[in-house]
Amino acid sequence: MISEVIILQNGRVIDPMNQTDGIVDIWLEDGRIVAPRAVAPAGTCRYDLTGKWVMPGLIDIHVHLREPGQEYKETIATGTMAAAAGGFTAVACMPNTRPVNDSAAVTRLILDMAANCTARVYPVGALSRDSRGEQLAEYGEMKAAGAVALTDDGMPVTDSQLMRRAMEYATSHWLPVISHAEELSLSRNGCMNEGPVSTRLGLRGIPTAAESIMVYREIALAELTGARVHIAHVSCEASLALIRLAKKRGVKVTAETAPHYFALTDEAVDGYNTHAKMNPPLRSEVDRMAIREALADGTLDAIATDHAPHSVLEKEVEFNYAANGIVGLETSLPLGLSLVHDGLITAGRMVELMSCAPARILGVPGGRLAAGDPADITVVDPDRRFVFSAAECRSKGRNTPFDGRQFRGKAVLTIMNGRVTFTDL
Amino acid sequence: MEQLSVQDIQHVIAAARSFREISARSIKKVPTLRGKTIVNLFFEPSTRTRTSFEIAAKRMSADTFNIAASTSSATKGETLIDTARNIEAMNPDIIIIRHSCSGAPQLLARHIGSSIINAGDGAHEHPSQGLLDIMTILDHKKDLAGLKIAIIGDIAHSRVAVSDILGFTKLGATVCVAGPATFIPAAVENLGARVCRTVDEAIDDADVVMALRIQKERQNDPLIPSLREYSIHYGINRRRLTHAKPDVLVMHPGPINRGVELSPDVADGPSSVILEQVKNGVAVRMALLYLVMGGEKGGEAQGDI
Ligand SMILES: [Zn+2]
Questions:
Q1: Which residue(s) pair with A416 in the sheet?
Q2: Which of A173, B42, B246, B289 matches a 20 to 30 Å C-alpha distance to A205?
Q3: What's the CA dihedral at A195, A198, A199, A200 to 10 degrees?
Q4: Does A106 fall in a domain?
Q5: What is the pTM of this model?
Q6: What is the CA radius of gyration of chain A?
Q7: How far does the CA of residue A316 sit from the closest CA of chain B (Å)?
Q8: Which residues of B are less than 8 Å from A317 in CB distance?
């Protein structure tokens, strides 16, 4: 096979890990980034990326791909197509499939199905068997099969002793534990943030304490066990205050938020909009502002979508009965770019939040553009204006509160392992 | 109630007053809605509200059908929208819906074309109850503006509370709510109510005292230790009522837990207008049916009331 050289020319390369931010050409060959040579070989493919931003491929560490088991909502193929279209070169998929990914066999099945897809897929293994919160799953076996982290996302761990043992055991296999922090006894039967909007709509509220109580438990257990703990989808100021303090003390805790928590508030539920129903719920404006601040000051390490495709069967029902979650892969980058356009963060910081830190948290390759690194690259047109249409999603899920929203900036070229997985130049 | 303007409210009450007169006749029937089909779609048992709507419809010569639907529609695989579309295929003129989920009437209105009347959704609203409460107060006080209205009890789980607070404050009343903190919802002040720390503070100098039905616990959520303690600290009795205005009206949306929310002597006493509320309920519902069906001001009253 003759290897093809690709040269990305004239783009603004934003590579915070290498302290690079400037117009540089990037050469790709054999699925890797290579050092530029004096002369390009015949048949070289060149992209003129004047005015575009070239960054390490975006990595989304919190995605529900639904396969195996709920292929009517999403498959690994459709989910990774949505990822590529959204500028992602890799995703980590949560274990709440059917069956639950609590064994090497399921982990391998997912990786087999992902082999020819348009994004790297990193399976996250279940923390407990069948995510029932009773017995530990086989971390060693899952890690050997390719699992990169552990969580019972969606099935919050109520038993603190189990969480302690999970963290301890995870350190023996050098795996991070991802916590969906939710005190179920406080959130039970709730379906949106507790506050003026829930009172007006007559919907049972979920207080922010339901999240922050468990965030504190995870921090305390991380301190006790020395484990690496990652807090998923942080939604409120109270959790951020705890994480900020823990980081100051040197606890090995990292945290992500999802774009909807910095873009929307619980006002979006008005009219009983089930596309604004997720868990944790959209919070108040005070919380939203706190999330934005924490993205800028480093309290939050990453932006992850919590991409949760559902069909109309789960969403065109009474608000109480509607499933939690929204799709996010195709809107995450435009929403992240909105923070840059707003002047809240630099483009470099956005790359840290959406590529460097995700790679570091999961201990996977990517997040930088050095010679020898995998050719996973996202090219962004920061100023392309477009109207997002749910109907045109690559994902099977149409459950998004951003249908019809005007965005500025999007991915225009996505390259994974040296292969173009999406183009809209 | 949230969508109704002051004018809308006054309009419904005026119509209800004219319909009330029909209920006093020996032949309690007018042909206004002859040939119209009205479906009572109740996902939650409520004999009182259903009967009230049914009597209202029958007094106007409409044909009524009661459908007691199962709330656990998910278990039988049929969604609310399916159920409603099936009913709509039979061409009813109005669907009256009661549902344990807040927002169910709005969901229905988005998917079907029939006119829909909300007969109570979750802990959200119970507009016809709010309107009949306003009508009852107006029968005794010329105006709601300037009145102090105390609402005592389970505000958090009551759709009546939301509709009453919104309706009363729209018409200029001051609404004070009181009850144990487990019954006071987050940020209820945003609806326009003042939260009082004690029942006595809420009742003090009140023109109207509305007691709401309470339950000891809901969905495994402990709210109060006992009905006994509730009645001692929050029940409306004659002693507490002495702090209200002498011509105070005592109201309750029913059904009453006698001796809990209201002591029997208060419930049956001279200040009580509870049976008038029931009577006005039929009149208000007649007015709603009439206006939704395109009565003189049909256009505006049509749709999701
Ligand atoms: Zn989660």
A1: A419
A2: B42
A3: 120
A4: yes
A5: 0.93
A6: 21
A7: 8
A8: 74, 79-81, 107
Q: From the list B121, B186, B220, which residue is nearest A205 (CB)?
A: B186
| Domain region containing A105 | 56-362
Contacts of A272 in chain B (CB under 8 A): 102-103, 106-107
Backbone angles phi, psi at B296, to 5 degrees: -45, -35
CA of residue A279 to ligand 1 center, whole Å: 7
Mean pLDDT of B22-43: 90
Which residue, A264, A397, A236, is CA-closest to A329? A397
CATH number of the domain to which A175 belongs: 3.20.20.140
Residue A3 lies in a domain: no
Using an 8 Å Cβ cutoff, are A68 and A95 in contact?
no
What is this model's ipTM? 0.91
Residues 201-230 of A with CB under 8 A from B: 201-205
Contact B102 A203 (CB under 8 A): yes
Alpha-helix runs per DSSP H in A63-150: 76-85, 104-114, 139-145
CA proximity to B182, closest of B229, B116, B130: B229
Domain count, chain A: 1
What are A275-290's pLDDT values in tens digits? 999 999 999 999 999 9
Q: How many CB atoms lie within 10 A of CB A226?
A: 11
Please report whether residue A101 resides in a domain: yes
Task: Supply the pLDDT for residue B303.
Answer: 41
> Which residues of chain A have a CB within 8 Å of the CB of B190?
196, 199-200
* Count of helix runs (H) and strand runs (E) in chain A: 14, 20
C-alpha distance from residue B232 to each of A166, A170, B137, B180 (Å)? 50, 55, 27, 12
CA distance A186 to A210: 5
The beta strand positions in A169-309, using DSSP E, are 177-179, 192-193, 205-206, 229-231, 253-257, 302-303
Mutate to test the interface with A, among B43, B124, B164 (most CBs of A within 10 A): B124
| Terminal CA-CA length for chain B | 7
The Cα A222–Cα B294 span in angstroms is 66
Domains of chain B: 6-122+278-301 (3.40.50.1370), 127-272 (3.40.50.1370)
Does a cis peptide bond (omega within 30 degrees of 0) precede residue A382?
Answer: no
Name beta bridge partners: B67: B41
Do B102 and B124 form a contact (C-beta atoms < 8 A)?
yes
Rounded Cα distance, A389 and A405, in Å: 8
Q: Which of A195, A202, A317 sits opposite B102 (nearest CB)?
A: A202
Judge contact between A139 and A152, C-beta under 8 A: no
At A383 the three-state DSSP class reads strand
Mean pLDDT of A62-89: 97
- The Cα–Cα gap between A142 and B297 comes to 68
Q: What is the pLDDT of residues A198-250, one digit of tens each?
A: 999 999 999 999 999 999 999 999 999 999 999 999 999 999 999 999 999 99
Between CA A297 and CA A134 the distance in angstroms is 37
Residue B299 scores a pLDDT above 80: no
* Centroid of ligand 1 to alpha carbon of A208 (angstroms): 15
Nearest CA in chain A to B121: A202
Q: Which residues of B244-275 are buried (b: 16+ CB within 10 A; e: fewer)?
A: bbeebbbbbbeeebeebbbbeebbeeebbbbe
Work out the end-to-end distance of chain A between its first and last CA atoms, rounded to an integer number of angstroms: 27
Higher pLDDT, A309 or B81: A309
For residue A5, being part of any structural domain is answered with no
How far is C-alpha A71 from the chain's CA centre? 20
Mutate to test the interface with A, among B71, B101, B189 (most CBs of A within 10 A): B101
Q: Are β-strands A253-257 and A229-231 bridged in parallel, bridged antiparallel, or unpaired?
A: parallel
